[in-house]
Amino acid sequence: MSIAIVELEPGGHVIGHRHPFEESYFILEGNPLLAVADKTYALCPHDFGLIPHAAGHAWNNPSGERVRLLRVHAPQPRPIGGRGVWGVFAAEETAVPTQGQRVDELDPAKPYVGHFDQSDMAPPGSISMPGYHGANVQNVQIRMMVDEILGARQHTMFMVQFKQSTTAGPAAKPMGTTAKEHFHPFEEIYYLVSGQTETFSDGEQNVAGVGDLIYTPVGASHGFAPIGTEPVCWIEVQSPLPPASDGFTFHNDWALHTNIG
User: Fold this and answer.
1) Which domain holds residue 245?
2) What positions does the domain Cupin type-2 occupy (predicted)?
3) Are residues 197 and 227 in contact, defined by beta-carbon separation less than 8 angstroms?
4) How far apart, in Å, do the first and last CA atoms of the chain sit?
5) What angle do CA 149, 150, 152 make, to 5 degrees?
6) Can you give 94-149 as a three-state secondary structure string?
């Protein structure tokens, strides 16, 4: 996959174009207009969406404020026919939008878009998502955004939040909530939007905070332990789509088995 933070200055726009790969986005700041698949949307912070493979689309920022968004390309762009670098092809039929409708996830006539709200989060619990469910990641909340239901075929994007658990009694204190070390047959990124966490990756230990991005290649071991009392929240992207099962391999699951080579 390819990940970028894209900024669109006031009055800026991107003409109609299409790609030989999927694109998705999460609006961090501002109120851009987007034309995609014969629809035009007036987006706001925490809106997200999918631009399907080869779908014509165009962006506009008619406001007086900067737009910032997290952008995903999956799979990575590459030259085609020995020309170009970014896999951008003209889509003359898609005009730069000058107005748009608000996102409405309940309207079947407005596909490929959604909006994240904290109230969408299920109560904290053990992880349960495509590729894995079990007790190795606990006190986690997940809100799927870009996935197969929205029409994605090459990647997923979702919001993850860890809340600190506490001990019982009058002297209650936070307990470190840890996503135990594991690895996958797909790439992942984590873009932090709140809180701090320790990160563990193939023997390296670091601290990540708001605005940091963590990249995990295929097969790289990684785990997390939130720091402090503020919930840790990140936007996570996986590519390609996780398999229906056996997408997560946790080291501790194999600790009682004899390793013979």
Assistant:
1) 119-254
2) 5-72, 176-237
3) yes
4) 32
5) 95
6) CCCCCCCECCCCCCCCCCCEEECCHHHCCCCECEEECCEEECCECCEEEEEEECCC
Same domain, 80 and 147: no
| Pair 124, 100 in one domain | no
* Same domain membership, residue 124 and residue 111: no
Q: What's this model's pTM, rounded to 2 decimal places?
A: 0.91
- pLDDT string in tens for the chain (261-residue length): 999 999 999 999 999 999 999 999 999 999 999 999 899 999 999 999 999 999 999 999 999 999 999 999 999 998 888 888 888 999 999 999 999 999 999 999 999 999 999 999 988 888 877 778 777 887 889 999 999 999 999 999 999 998 764 433 444 344 444 788 899 999 999 999 999 999 988 888 999 999 999 999 999 999 998 888 898 999 999 999 999 888 999 998 999 899 999
Cβ-based neighbours of 84, under 8 Å, separated by 6 or more: none
> CATH code at 232?
2.60.120.10
Q: Do the beta carbons of residue 216 and residue 201 sit within 8 Å?
A: yes
CA-only gyration radius of the chain, Å: 20
Query: How far apart are the C-alpha atoms of 232 and 109, rounded to whole Å?
Result: 34
Kindly state whether residues 174 and 75 are assigned to the same domain. no
Residue 39 in tokens: 């629809």
Q: Which of 73, 91, 115 is the last residue of a domain?
A: 115
Q: Which residue has the tokens 């919001």?
A: 159
Same domain, yes or no: 239 and 174 = yes
